[in-house]
């Protein structure tokens, strides 16, 4: 089996949580995170961004979009990541 046919996944803890996620957040620098992680807390399909995941604490805030903008995660940037994600999926 060649390396190109292997499935790559993030390392998970015994509790099935992401190995890099702690109480303080993700340990990976934002630019190094996988696209699927960068997209959280947005919900989406291959057709586009649907909104924000209700399980995310900022979903309870009326100004959740401005919070994401402040975190340098605006919807237009998320849409770029979404396009890249589905391009990668299509290649495999």
Task: Report what the structure shows.
This protein is of the alpha+beta class and 92 residues long. The protein has a domain at 29-91. It is built from three helices and four strands, in the order E-E-H-E-E-H-H. The strands form two sheets. It has a two-stranded antiparallel ribbon. Strands 3-4 form a two-stranded antiparallel ribbon. A hairpin with a 2-residue loop joins strand 1 (21-22) and strand 2 (25-26). The longest helix is centred in the C-terminal third of the chain and has 17 residues, at 75-91.
Q: How do the helices and strands line up, and which of them pair or pack?
A:
Blueprint: E1 21-22, E2 25-26, H1 35-39, E3 42-45, E4 48-52, H2 64-70, H3 75-91
Antiparallel strand pairs: 1-2, 3-4
Key structural traits:
92 residues, alpha+beta, two-stranded antiparallel ribbon
Overall morphology = globular
Number of strands: 4
* Count of DSSP-assigned helices: 3
Strand content: 5-15%
- Give the rounded overall mean pLDDT: 84
Structural class: alpha+beta
List low-pLDDT spans: none
Radius of gyration: 15 Å
Order of helices and strands: EEHEEHH
Indicate the percent of residues in helices: 25-40%
Sheet with most strands: 2 strands, antiparallel
End-to-end Cα distance, whole Å, is 15 Å
* Lateral arrangement of strands in the main beta sheet: 1-2
Compact summary:
This protein is of the alpha+beta class and 92 residues long. The protein is built from three helices and four strands, in the order ββαββαα.
């Amino acid at each position: 089996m060649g390396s190109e046919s292997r499935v790559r996944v993030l390392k998970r803890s015994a509790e099935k949580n992401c190995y890099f996620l702690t109480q303080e957040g993700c340990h990976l620098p934002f630019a190094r995170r996988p696209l699927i992680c960068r997209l959280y807390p947005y919900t989406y399909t291959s057709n586009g961004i649907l909104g924000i995941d209700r399980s995310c604490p900022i979903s309870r805030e009326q100004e959740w979009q401005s919070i994401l903008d402040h975190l340098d995660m605006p919807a237009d940037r998320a849409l770029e990541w979404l396009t890249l994600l589905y391009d990668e999926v299509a290649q495999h």
